[in-house]
Every structure is written in structure tokens, then in C-alpha cells.
Amino acid sequence: MAETNRRLDGTFFAWDSTMLKSAEKCPRYFQYKMIEGWQPHRKSVHLLFGGHYAKALERYHRWRAEGLDLDSALESVVLLALTETWEIVGSKDGVPIGKPWDSMDNSKTRETLIRSIIWYIDEFAEDSLKTVILPDGKAAAELSFTLAVDDDILFCGHLDRLCDNGDIYIADNKTTSSVITQRFFDQFSPDTQFSLYTFAGQAIYNIPIAGVVIDAAQILVGGTKFDRGFSFRTKEQLDEWYDGAMDLINIINKYISADEPLPMNASSCGNYGGCEFRAVCSKSPSQRKPFLKADFTQGVAWNPLERR
Questions:
Q1: Which CATH number is 45-234 given?
Q2: β-strand pairing of 38-40 with 296-298
Q3: Which end of the chain is more exposed for a tag (fewer CB within 10 A), N or C?
């Protein structure tokens, strides 16, 4: 039986960074995405590519920390990525028929995914940031967490890994099509995802975490370029973030418990090239549902307890 992240009155008690960032962006966006489960007919290539890339490197770091030699880890992780990007499209005489993932994008393709994984491992093969080994002897990689905080709220999430070069950091991989400059790394401070990760990491593992190390990969048709940046968090910053996150959760849950529609934050409509629901919200309230059904697919509500 699937776990639920909602109370009997419909309010949410389990929250992850996706939910928090959706609520920060716009309560109406939160309603469409997190509560009603509306998704574009075709998932973003950037999310798919980034997910395959991050999963492969998480697994690589775990295998290396567990003692697998570099060549064997590289071979295994490339095989994993190739398998994950092979799509089953049917069957004949009981035998599955598949084809390579077609991203329908010039730069973020199956080929550039495999290339970027190999080049990343080559770039950081002699990395000074070593994966932390936890007291139970396990490598601190591919870490899903659930943390109980105030008001019977749970924080949920998934850490790529913890690493150590004298200070402890949470490591995270990001992909982009843009040139990587200091401005790219500046966008992660402040940032709810990394504040949540740092806050939860410190609480769960009882170690001082300085912040997040971001390994960024610029994905180009003809190559992949890498750079590394850091996003630090002090205790005061984390305390401030926590108070703001709990206030935000309380605001969203009050709307839900009162059975009121969540309001639109019109100042967010044009951010990052425009909200995916902008065309829907531009219509009269009575006309929005048909436009949602035409442009989106309604799935299940977001549940971080099922994504741990």
C-alpha cells in the first residue's frame, strides 16, 4: 500500500525541495503540479538528461568508495547509463523490442550523456574530494532521507553523496547548456534545495557540513566542459531558511485546510522564460480546466515519501 504524505484534512506533512520550491514560485503552480499532478505531455529533456547523468555519477562514486577499481566502475556505470536510456517500445513473439532514447534535442542526447559521464570521471579521477564512509562502513552516496522537524512535519530528499577534503560537503551534479561562470554558481545561494540538503545532512549524520560542492557540466554538441563551485551555509543562514520554510508550509496548508483555491503569484509568470502554466492562468477561471486537459496530462499528486 502506497504511503501518503497528506493528513485527513488534505494538508501536507511530508515536504521535499521540489514542493518547497514550487510553493516559493507560486501557490497556484503548487496546486497544479503538487496537488493536482498536471504534467506536460512530454517530460523536459533537461530533467531526463540531468536525472540520468546524476544517477550514473552517484553510482560511480559509491562503487569507487566501496573499493571497485576505476576501470571496472567506469565500465559498469556506462553500462548502467546505456541500459537506463534503452526504451522498450513493444514486443514480438514475447521478445521485447527496444530503441535508444531519442531526446529530440541537439545537445542533450544519449551520445552526449555517455560522453559526459566518461569525461567527468576522467576529469575527476584523482579528485581530492573523497566520498565519506559512514560509521556503519557504508559509502555516503545515494542517500535518501526523512527527517522529522517541528509541527509533525517531515523533510524528505535524496543526497548524491557526502564528501571530505578536510571539510564535509554535500556533492551535487548540475548540467547546463550555458557557459559556466561564477554567476552560475551564485544562483545556488540562497537556494532552498541546497539549504534543505545541508540542514538535513547535519541533523541526520551529526557532522558539521560546510555547504554544497557543485560539479557543473556544460553540455555542448561537440564536447562537455566542467567546472566546480561551492555554496556555503552558516548556522544562522540555515536557521533563517528553516523558519522561512516552516512559515511557507503553514501558509500553503492553511489554504488547503480552508478548502480555498491557492492564489496566483503573477510576478512569477515570466520568470525563467515563462511558467509552463502561464497560458492556462491567463484564461478566465471557468475556462482553465479545458486548457489544462488540452496541454497537460493529469497524473498522481507529488509524494516525496514514494521518491526516497
A1: 3.90.320
A2: antiparallel
A3: N
